Amino acid sequence: MKKILIIDDDADLREAIKTVLAPFYEIREAEGRESALKVLKDYQPHLIILDVMMDTTSTGFELAREFRQDSRLKDTKLLMLTSVDSVMNINFKAEAGDPTWLPVDDYLTKPLQPKILLDKIQNLIA
Questions:
Q1: Do the Cβ atoms of 36 and 63 come closer than 8 Å?
Q2: 78, 105 contact by CB (below 8 A)
Q3: Separation of alpha carbons 18 and 36, rounded Å
Q4: pLDDT in tens, 16-29
Q5: CA 36 to chain centre
Q6: Is the pTM of this model over 0.85?
Q7: Residue 113: pLDDT above 90?
Q8: C-beta neighbour count of 45 within 10 angstroms
Q9: Phi, psi for residue 98 in degrees, rounded to 5
Q10: Helices (H), ranges, 4-70
Q11: What is the CATH number of domain 3-125?
């Protein structure tokens, strides 16, 4: 079974995502940077679902860059969740994949739609 780590400071959103994904994937959760790093010490996910704004407004960006520098995680797929694209006028679709600015494989905007989430994940880790 493929493994997914959900990193988001919103417990309700983590639970909603887990409810959608648990029938198909092994799920672990973390509420922020420190808890994510603890989970990753002994967990090798195929995909990390990563919120942008957690401990700070840029935690998700920082973690994505760190994960790409980590030899254990450099090939792990990253799916970023955000609602800041509309607030900050950032075109995440154009920026996703940039190795220095936004080294993620794909992104989704909140609020999430379960079918779209499942389709994106399937495409990333089929």
A1: yes
A2: yes
A3: 16
A4: 999 999 999 999 99
A5: 11
A6: yes
A7: yes
A8: 22
A9: -65, 120
A10: 11-21, 33-40, 59-69
A11: 3.40.50.2300
